[in-house]
Design goal:
This protein is of the alpha/beta class and 389 residues long. It has nine helices and 16 strands. The strands form four sheets. It has an eight-stranded mixed beta sheet with strand order 1-2-4-3-5-16-6-15. It has a four-stranded antiparallel beta sheet with strand order 10-12-8-13, with helices on one face. Helix 1 runs antiparallel to helix 3, helix 1 packs across helix 9 and helix 7 crosses helix 9.
Length: 389
């Protein structure tokens, strides 16, 4: 009997529970490595179903195995953390935690994987073993995936799969592509130091604000000439701070931003190129500096066979479910799992088809909850389709 029969039966009986779980998690968001209550919420429901969840060593996040110890075991992953952002949706289930919200869709990811777990648990015999990974701290670079991997979550896992909410895609549709689907993402902060001085005598000191301006325009410009433009490498500054008086050259200034690239090979070289460029631009100005370069995540690169499995899983939902997508500039720490085992990620449509397509990481982001059922169906179908490969 197809697993979809068990999925539809489970959804018919428990769809209201699925929505309620998502709304509970949405009301009570927790930041990365602080997801203690969310972890316990998921663990309790898995345990109530007779499963054996295991909380990760840091106390947040958990794994749970379902099915017999077959030679083939796939992993299904969801992230659990929220963002340090005040919610402005006005929804009846709005965040109750000041300054924290699930503007990232991770509440849906968690509820979907929990629903898939309980649907799979209703199946008398699964065709492959399944490991559920409820991961903390995806939003904290370089990501909680590294902690989970260090804890052994990929032990005996042959493939791994994940979904990510996409508010640009209509509900009912799921999109994926072989190869890169996200980009590498790093962050950096530059601190400039100068003796300071009077703006009437910039030649007697290091003009720190001029130096900041030189970096703001110069570093992205140099990168555009040092890196192959086909690799879509983009540097954007998000914060600049210096000075308080119009007629005083300050002694301290900071500049912070991100640099993203579609190429894993370019990502490996970026830190050295950025450091060299900053030093070269500031050298003639006599301004001292320090660079804090934070390596983030490599691109998520969907493995070919795993992508075919994902596509078949989506097609099994219905003839119009599968959609195309392109590589995005966003970063995702699911990429770390794919450095270890083959796998694939897909984008889950969450747009209702009415009104504006609100983006992720906006305080007004919310989703059409019909996407929860689509997500559960996709996850369960992945188990069935994996048995054929």
């Amino acid at each position: 009997m197809s697993l979809s029969v068990y999925t539809e039966s489970w959804l018919a009986a428990h769809y209201d529970d699925l929505v309620a779980w998502r709304r509970h998690i949405h009301r009570h968001p927790e930041l990365g490595r602080q997801e203690f209550a969310t972890t316990q919420f998921v663990a309790d429901r898995l345990a109530d179903a007779g499963l054996n969840p295991k909380i990760l060593p840091g106390g947040t996040g958990l794994t749970c195995d379902i099915g017999p110890e077959y030679r083939q075991r796939i992993a299904l992953r969801a992230d659990m953390d929220a963002l340090p952002m005040t919610e402005r949706t006005g929804a009846p289930y709005t965040s109750t935690v000041p300054g924290v919200s699930h503007a990232c869709g991770h509440d849906a990811h968690t509820a979907i994987l929990l629903g898939a777990a309980l649907a799979l648990n209703s199946v008398p015999e699964l065709p492959v073993s399944v490991r559920l990974i409820f991961q903390p701290a995806e939003e904290l670079m370089p990501g909680g995936a590294l902690d989970a991997i260090s804890a052994g979550v990929l032990s005996s896992v042959s493939r791994i799969f994940a979904l990510h909410c996409d508010p640009r895609l209509a509900v009912g549709r799921v999109a994926t592509t072989p190869g890169p689907i996200t980009s590498a993402a790093d962050s950096l902060e530059i601190t400039l130091h100068s003796p300071g001085g009077h703006t009437s005598r910039p030649h007697l000191t290091g003009d720190l604000v001029y130096g900041l301006g030189t970096l703001i325009t110069g570093v992205p410009g140099v990168l555009s000439r040092r890196v192959d433009p086909r690799h879509s490498t983009v540097m954007v500054w998000g914060a600049v701070n210096a000075g308080v008086a119009a007629n005083a050259i300050p002694q301290l200034g900071t500049l912070a931003g991100t640099v993203r690239t579609a190429s894993r090979e370019t990502w490996l070289e970026l830190e050295a190129i950025v450091a060299e460029t900053i030093s070269s631009l500031l050298g003639p100005l006599g301004i001292a500096h320090s660079l804090q370069y934070n390596r983030g995540v490599p691109p998520v690169v969907n493995e070919e066979v795993s992508t075919r499995i994902m596509m078949h899983a989506v097609e099994a939902i219905g003839p119009d479910a599968l959609a195309d997508t392109r590589q995005s500039g966003g970063g995702e720490d699911f990429s770390w799992y794919l450095e270890e085992v083959p796998g694939a990620m897909a984008r889950l449509g969450t747009w209702s088809g009415r009104g504006p397509q609100l983006d992720l990481h906006q305080p007004t982001f919310d989703l059409d909850e019909r996407a929860l059922g689509v997500g559960v169906r996709t996850m369960v179908n992945l188990v069935e389709q994996s048995a054929a490969f």
